[in-house]
Amino acid sequence: MNRALRYATVGAIAVSLLAGGSAAAFAAPQDLHTAKPVVAAAPAAASLTAKASVNSVKAWQEFRISGVAKGIKAGSNVTVQQKQGKKWVSLPAKAPVNKSGAYSVRVKLGIKGANQLRIAAGSTVSPVVAVTVR
Fold first, then answer.
1. Sign of the C-alpha dihedral computed for residues 58, 64, 82 and 90 taken in this order
2. Closest Cα to residue 111, out of 125, 131, 90?
3. For a disulfide at 105, which of 4, 18, 95, 111, Cβ 3.0-4.6 Å?
4. Using an 8 Å Cβ cutoff, are 58 and 134 in contact?
C-alpha cells in the first residue's frame, strides 16, 4: 500500500509538471507575437553649412570659410573642395570640427575668375560657395 501511494503521488506530480510546462510552452509563442518590436532610432543625417568671409579676393589672398557641421563627430576634419572642370578636387585646406560643431578653414586661391568651393567631410558636402579671384 505504501508503494502504491508513492507511485500515485509521483504520477500526480509528474502530470502536474507536464501540464504546467506544456501550458508555458504554448503560451510563449503567443507572447512573442503580441509583443511590440523594438525599433532603434535612426541617426540624424549629417549636414554641413558654409559661408565665405569675402565674395572677392586677390590671387593668393587668405580668406576663411566657416560653418556648422551637424551629425559629424567633434575632432573630425572638414576639407575644402574646388570645382575644376567637371570634377571636385580636394585642396590642402582643412580644419577640425569643434565640440559645438563649428569649423573655420583658412583658404588661399590662385585660379583667377569665379571659383566654386564646398566643404566635405566624408560623403557629406556643403552647398556651393562662390568666391571670385581677381
1. positive
2. 131
3. 95
4. yes
